[in-house]
């Protein structure tokens, strides 16, 4: 066995207290410890990176939850607003129903319209009293140059209640007692009709006899407030006197819409004659019946109802 040589110091002197083999071993141990520390530091660094990523993920999830909470709060606010709007609309409808409930039956029925809520009972000829101000009560007759002015005049009688032009808007089925030479007048019977030859540009009856009519049928009872008529735009043909009738399901017959049996009609091709009823009438069917005419039974017409 050889003898350990002393490890030289920095000054080149041998250190008799620290053999070279021991110093080598110590250096190896220091090196191994350094390597281990570096590995540990690397693992710690990786763990820190992983923890930072996890923290970012948690923050992103928390932000997502906050955003979702904000969206839910906004949705709940919108729902609350919608519920409030619906409640107001419901209250308005209830108020309108209460107005409609106060009515007087004038059709000669059983006098119990307030108790019978069946569709047939609602379709009776019913005057709604207590709704219209006294200054606006009673029938109205006026002449207008175009359909929009006639509508505005009718709407002025019912402030706050939107009206509908049932014929123009095709809100009801329209039928006629007969047609001239087979024309069906599919779109020629409205107040705004301005067709072209050879069409009749209006409803024209097959023959000139009293009792020819134009009729509207709704799918449920509606509140009727008036009618308007106009002549044929390309010929001197118009109805000068007519009746207005509604179908009474109690008697299963047509009855006059008011005590007035005949109404003044037109005097030329294009002026619109507007008849506003003295009070609203509830029915499913209404017809305008020709009584007298000029040259031929021809008509364009409109029926005004409360919008539903």
From TrEMBL:
Domain of life: Eukaryota
Alphabetically ordered keywords of this record: Coiled coil
Stretches assigned to the F5/8 type C domain: 156-306
Sections of the chain in a coiled coil: 65-99
Designated name of the protein: F5/8 type C domain-containing protein
């Amino acid at each position: 066995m050889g003898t350990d040589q002393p490890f030289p110091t920095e000054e080149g002197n041998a250190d008799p207290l620290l053999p070279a083999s021991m110093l080598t071993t110590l250096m190896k141990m220091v090196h191994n410890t350094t390597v281990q520390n570096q590995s540990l530091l690397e693992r710690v660094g990786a763990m820190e990176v992983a923890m930072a990523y996890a923290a970012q993920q948690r923050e992103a999830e928390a932000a997502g939850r906050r955003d979702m909470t904000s969206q839910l709060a906004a949705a709940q606010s919108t729902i609350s607003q919608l519920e409030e709007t619906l409640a107001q609309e419901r209250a308005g409808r209830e108020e309108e129903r209460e107005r409609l409930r106060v009515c007087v039956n004038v059709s000669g029925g059983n006098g119990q319209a307030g108790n019978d809520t069946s569709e047939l009972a609602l379709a009776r000829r019913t005057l709604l009293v207590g709704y219209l101000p006294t200054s606006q009560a009673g029938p109205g007759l006026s002449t207008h140059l175009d359909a929009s002015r006639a509508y505005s005049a009718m709407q002025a009688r019912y402030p706050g209640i939107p009206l509908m032009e049932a014929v123009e808007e095709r809100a009801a089925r329209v039928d006629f007692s007969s047609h001239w030479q087979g024309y069906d007048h599919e779109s020629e019977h409205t107040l705004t009709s301005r067709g072209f030859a050879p069409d009749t540009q209006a409803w024209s009856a097959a023959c000139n006899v009293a009792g020819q009519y134009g009729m509207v049928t709704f799918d449920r009872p509606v509140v009727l407030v008036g009618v308007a008529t106009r002549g044929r735009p390309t010929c001197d043909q118009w109805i000068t006197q007519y009746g207005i009738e509604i179908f009474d399901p109690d008697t299963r017959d047509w009855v006059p819409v008011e005590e007035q049996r005949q109404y003044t009609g037109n005097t030329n091709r294009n002026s619109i004659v507007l008849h506003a009823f003295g009070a609203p009438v509830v029915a499913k069917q209404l017809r305008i019946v020709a009584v007298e005419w000029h040259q031929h039974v021809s008509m364009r017409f409109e029926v005004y109802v409360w919008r539903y």
